[in-house]
Design goal:
Blueprint: H1 12-15, H2 20-27, E1 36-40, H3 46-52, E2 58-62, H4 65-77, E3 83-86, E4 98-103, H5 114-126, E5 128-139, H6 141-147, E6 149-157, E7 160-169, E8 174-183, E9 189-194, H7 200-209, E10 213-218, E11 232-238
Parallel strand pairs: 1-2, 1-4, 2-3, 4-5
Antiparallel strand pairs: 5-11, 6-7, 7-8, 8-9, 10-11
Helix pairs in contact: 2-3, 5-7
Protein backbone atom coordinates (compact mmCIF):
# COMPACT_ATOMS: atom_id res chain seq x y z
CA UNK A 1 0.00 0.00 0.00
CA UNK A 2 1.32 3.45 -0.95
CA UNK A 3 1.87 5.74 2.01
CA UNK A 4 0.15 9.07 1.13
CA UNK A 5 1.93 10.82 4.01
CA UNK A 6 5.47 9.64 3.23
CA UNK A 7 6.65 12.85 1.59
CA UNK A 8 4.99 14.96 4.29
CA UNK A 9 6.50 13.13 7.26
CA UNK A 10 9.55 15.39 7.84
CA UNK A 11 7.34 18.48 8.29
CA UNK A 12 4.06 16.83 9.30
CA UNK A 13 3.99 18.65 12.64
CA UNK A 14 4.14 22.02 10.90
CA UNK A 15 1.25 21.39 8.51
CA UNK A 16 -0.96 19.52 10.98
CA UNK A 17 -0.76 21.60 14.17
CA UNK A 18 -2.42 20.15 17.25
CA UNK A 19 -3.71 21.16 20.69
CA UNK A 20 -1.91 18.56 22.75
CA UNK A 21 -1.18 20.83 25.72
CA UNK A 22 -4.88 21.55 26.26
CA UNK A 23 -5.73 17.88 25.78
CA UNK A 24 -3.13 16.71 28.28
CA UNK A 25 -4.22 19.31 30.81
CA UNK A 26 -7.86 18.24 30.60
CA UNK A 27 -7.49 14.47 30.26
CA UNK A 28 -4.62 13.65 32.62
CA UNK A 29 -6.69 13.86 35.84
CA UNK A 30 -9.33 11.54 34.33
CA UNK A 31 -7.08 8.60 33.46
CA UNK A 32 -7.59 5.63 35.85
CA UNK A 33 -4.54 4.69 37.96
CA UNK A 34 -2.21 1.99 36.61
CA UNK A 35 -3.81 2.09 33.18
CA UNK A 36 -2.22 2.76 29.80
CA UNK A 37 -2.83 4.97 26.79
CA UNK A 38 -3.36 4.24 23.11
CA UNK A 39 -3.29 6.65 20.18
CA UNK A 40 -4.83 5.15 17.03
CA UNK A 41 -3.66 6.96 13.92
CA UNK A 42 -0.97 8.56 16.08
CA UNK A 43 0.92 10.25 13.24
CA UNK A 44 4.23 11.58 14.54
CA UNK A 45 3.22 10.85 18.13
CA UNK A 46 2.95 14.36 19.54
CA UNK A 47 0.07 13.54 21.90
CA UNK A 48 1.63 10.40 23.37
CA UNK A 49 4.94 12.16 23.82
CA UNK A 50 3.18 14.94 25.74
CA UNK A 51 1.44 12.38 27.98
CA UNK A 52 4.69 10.44 28.44
CA UNK A 53 6.31 13.59 29.81
CA UNK A 54 3.64 13.41 32.53
CA UNK A 55 4.59 9.83 33.35
CA UNK A 56 1.94 7.92 31.37
CA UNK A 57 2.76 4.79 29.38
CA UNK A 58 1.26 4.28 25.97
CA UNK A 59 1.24 2.75 22.51
CA UNK A 60 0.94 4.65 19.26
CA UNK A 61 -0.47 2.82 16.25
CA UNK A 62 -0.34 4.10 12.69
CA UNK A 63 -0.39 2.53 9.25
CA UNK A 64 2.25 5.00 8.02
CA UNK A 65 5.80 3.79 8.59
CA UNK A 66 7.13 7.21 7.62
CA UNK A 67 5.15 8.98 10.34
CA UNK A 68 6.11 6.35 12.92
CA UNK A 69 9.78 6.86 12.07
CA UNK A 70 9.33 10.53 12.96
CA UNK A 71 7.53 9.55 16.18
CA UNK A 72 10.37 7.21 17.15
CA UNK A 73 12.95 9.90 16.42
CA UNK A 74 11.10 12.45 18.57
CA UNK A 75 10.61 10.10 21.54
CA UNK A 76 14.24 8.95 21.39
CA UNK A 77 15.48 12.53 21.40
CA UNK A 78 13.20 13.21 24.40
CA UNK A 79 14.50 10.04 26.12
CA UNK A 80 10.97 8.67 26.49
CA UNK A 81 9.94 5.02 26.32
CA UNK A 82 6.91 4.74 24.04
CA UNK A 83 5.74 1.72 22.07
CA UNK A 84 5.27 2.59 18.39
CA UNK A 85 3.43 -0.03 16.35
CA UNK A 86 2.90 -0.11 12.59
CA UNK A 87 -0.54 -1.41 11.72
CA UNK A 88 -4.23 -0.68 11.30
CA UNK A 89 -6.50 0.49 14.10
CA UNK A 90 -7.73 -3.00 14.86
CA UNK A 91 -4.24 -3.71 16.22
CA UNK A 92 -5.68 -2.29 19.43
CA UNK A 93 -6.90 -5.83 20.11
CA UNK A 94 -3.33 -6.66 21.22
CA UNK A 95 -3.38 -4.01 23.98
CA UNK A 96 -4.81 -4.19 27.48
CA UNK A 97 -5.63 -2.08 30.54
CA UNK A 98 -6.29 1.04 28.49
CA UNK A 99 -7.41 4.05 30.48
CA UNK A 100 -7.46 6.51 27.59
CA UNK A 101 -7.65 5.99 23.84
CA UNK A 102 -7.19 8.83 21.36
CA UNK A 103 -8.42 8.88 17.76
CA UNK A 104 -7.74 12.46 16.76
CA UNK A 105 -7.10 14.53 13.65
CA UNK A 106 -9.90 12.89 11.61
CA UNK A 107 -8.05 9.56 11.75
CA UNK A 108 -11.26 7.56 12.25
CA UNK A 109 -12.50 8.71 8.83
CA UNK A 110 -9.62 6.82 7.21
CA UNK A 111 -11.58 3.62 7.82
CA UNK A 112 -13.69 2.33 4.93
CA UNK A 113 -17.13 1.69 6.44
CA UNK A 114 -19.26 2.33 9.51
CA UNK A 115 -19.01 -1.41 10.20
CA UNK A 116 -15.26 -0.95 10.65
CA UNK A 117 -15.92 2.01 12.94
CA UNK A 118 -18.27 -0.11 15.04
CA UNK A 119 -15.68 -2.88 15.28
CA UNK A 120 -12.93 -0.50 16.39
CA UNK A 121 -15.09 1.03 19.11
CA UNK A 122 -15.90 -2.45 20.41
CA UNK A 123 -12.26 -3.56 20.36
CA UNK A 124 -11.23 -0.48 22.31
CA UNK A 125 -13.91 -1.18 24.92
CA UNK A 126 -12.69 -4.76 25.28
CA UNK A 127 -9.11 -3.56 25.81
CA UNK A 128 -10.09 -0.88 28.34
CA UNK A 129 -10.53 -0.80 32.10
CA UNK A 130 -13.69 0.35 33.84
CA UNK A 131 -13.79 4.12 33.93
CA UNK A 132 -11.59 4.54 30.86
CA UNK A 133 -11.96 7.37 28.36
CA UNK A 134 -12.15 7.66 24.59
CA UNK A 135 -11.52 10.91 22.69
CA UNK A 136 -12.52 11.11 19.02
CA UNK A 137 -12.02 14.08 16.72
CA UNK A 138 -13.44 14.32 13.20
CA UNK A 139 -14.31 17.09 10.79
CA UNK A 140 -17.94 18.16 10.60
CA UNK A 141 -19.03 15.85 7.77
CA UNK A 142 -22.62 17.08 7.89
CA UNK A 143 -21.40 20.57 7.09
CA UNK A 144 -19.15 19.24 4.32
CA UNK A 145 -22.08 17.42 2.72
CA UNK A 146 -24.06 20.67 2.64
CA UNK A 147 -21.17 22.72 1.25
CA UNK A 148 -20.02 20.18 -1.32
CA UNK A 149 -16.49 21.61 -1.36
CA UNK A 150 -14.65 22.73 1.72
CA UNK A 151 -11.23 24.33 1.33
CA UNK A 152 -9.27 24.67 4.55
CA UNK A 153 -6.73 27.47 5.09
CA UNK A 154 -3.35 26.96 3.44
CA UNK A 155 -0.44 26.12 5.72
CA UNK A 156 2.85 27.86 5.00
CA UNK A 157 6.02 26.18 6.23
CA UNK A 158 9.70 27.01 5.76
CA UNK A 159 9.81 24.14 3.25
CA UNK A 160 6.79 25.16 1.14
CA UNK A 161 3.01 25.52 0.92
CA UNK A 162 0.46 22.88 2.00
CA UNK A 163 -3.10 22.97 0.62
CA UNK A 164 -6.13 20.94 1.81
CA UNK A 165 -9.60 20.49 0.36
CA UNK A 166 -12.48 18.19 1.27
CA UNK A 167 -14.95 17.31 -1.48
CA UNK A 168 -18.29 15.55 -1.14
CA UNK A 169 -18.53 13.05 -3.99
CA UNK A 170 -22.23 12.93 -4.87
CA UNK A 171 -21.82 9.80 -7.00
CA UNK A 172 -20.30 7.79 -4.14
CA UNK A 173 -22.16 9.78 -1.46
CA UNK A 174 -18.94 10.03 0.54
CA UNK A 175 -16.07 12.48 1.09
CA UNK A 176 -12.64 12.72 -0.45
CA UNK A 177 -9.63 14.44 1.08
CA UNK A 178 -7.34 16.16 -1.42
CA UNK A 179 -4.03 17.66 -0.42
CA UNK A 180 -0.95 19.01 -2.12
CA UNK A 181 2.45 20.23 -1.07
CA UNK A 182 4.35 22.79 -3.12
CA UNK A 183 7.96 22.79 -1.93
CA UNK A 184 10.26 25.76 -2.34
CA UNK A 185 12.46 23.52 -4.47
CA UNK A 186 11.55 20.35 -6.34
CA UNK A 187 8.32 18.87 -7.67
CA UNK A 188 4.90 19.35 -6.11
CA UNK A 189 3.21 16.40 -4.42
CA UNK A 190 -0.53 15.68 -4.53
CA UNK A 191 -2.69 12.91 -3.06
CA UNK A 192 -6.36 11.99 -2.69
CA UNK A 193 -7.83 9.83 0.08
CA UNK A 194 -11.35 8.40 0.09
CA UNK A 195 -12.91 8.70 3.53
CA UNK A 196 -15.75 7.26 5.55
CA UNK A 197 -18.19 10.02 6.59
CA UNK A 198 -18.37 10.00 10.39
CA UNK A 199 -21.65 11.78 11.06
CA UNK A 200 -22.13 12.84 14.66
CA UNK A 201 -25.39 11.01 15.34
CA UNK A 202 -24.13 7.79 13.76
CA UNK A 203 -20.94 7.93 15.84
CA UNK A 204 -22.93 8.50 19.03
CA UNK A 205 -25.14 5.50 18.29
CA UNK A 206 -22.25 3.20 17.41
CA UNK A 207 -20.32 4.27 20.50
CA UNK A 208 -23.31 3.68 22.77
CA UNK A 209 -23.81 0.17 21.37
CA UNK A 210 -20.15 -0.56 22.16
CA UNK A 211 -20.68 0.56 25.77
CA UNK A 212 -19.35 4.12 25.55
CA UNK A 213 -21.25 6.96 27.25
CA UNK A 214 -20.94 10.45 25.75
CA UNK A 215 -19.63 12.97 28.27
CA UNK A 216 -18.65 16.01 26.20
CA UNK A 217 -19.22 17.22 22.65
CA UNK A 218 -17.07 20.19 21.72
CA UNK A 219 -15.51 21.94 18.76
CA UNK A 220 -12.02 21.95 20.27
CA UNK A 221 -10.03 21.35 23.45
CA UNK A 222 -10.87 24.87 24.64
CA UNK A 223 -14.37 23.56 25.33
CA UNK A 224 -16.09 25.60 22.61
CA UNK A 225 -19.60 24.13 22.17
CA UNK A 226 -20.05 22.24 18.89
CA UNK A 227 -22.58 23.65 16.42
CA UNK A 228 -23.68 22.84 12.88
CA UNK A 229 -21.14 25.44 11.70
CA UNK A 230 -18.17 23.93 13.54
CA UNK A 231 -15.19 22.92 11.43
CA UNK A 232 -14.30 20.00 13.67
CA UNK A 233 -16.15 17.94 16.27
CA UNK A 234 -14.55 16.54 19.43
CA UNK A 235 -16.29 13.76 21.36
CA UNK A 236 -15.31 12.51 24.80
CA UNK A 237 -16.73 9.16 25.93
CA UNK A 238 -16.40 7.14 29.14
CA UNK A 239 -16.79 3.42 29.73
CA UNK A 240 -18.83 4.03 32.86
CA UNK A 241 -22.24 5.57 33.42
CA UNK A 242 -21.09 7.58 36.41
Amino acid sequence: MTDPYAQLAPFYDQIFPDSRDKAVEFLSPLIPPNSKLADLGCGTGSYLIAFARKGFQGTGIDISKSLLNQAQKKSTEAQLQINWQEGSMDSVRSLERLGLTLILGNSLAHLSTTDEVRNILQLIAEASVEGSWLAIQVINFQRLKKLGVWKLPDQETPQGLFRRTYIWDKDRNSPEFLFSFEPNTGDSYTSAINMCPIFAEVLLQEAQEAGWIIKQRWENWKGTPATEHSTALLFLFSLTSS
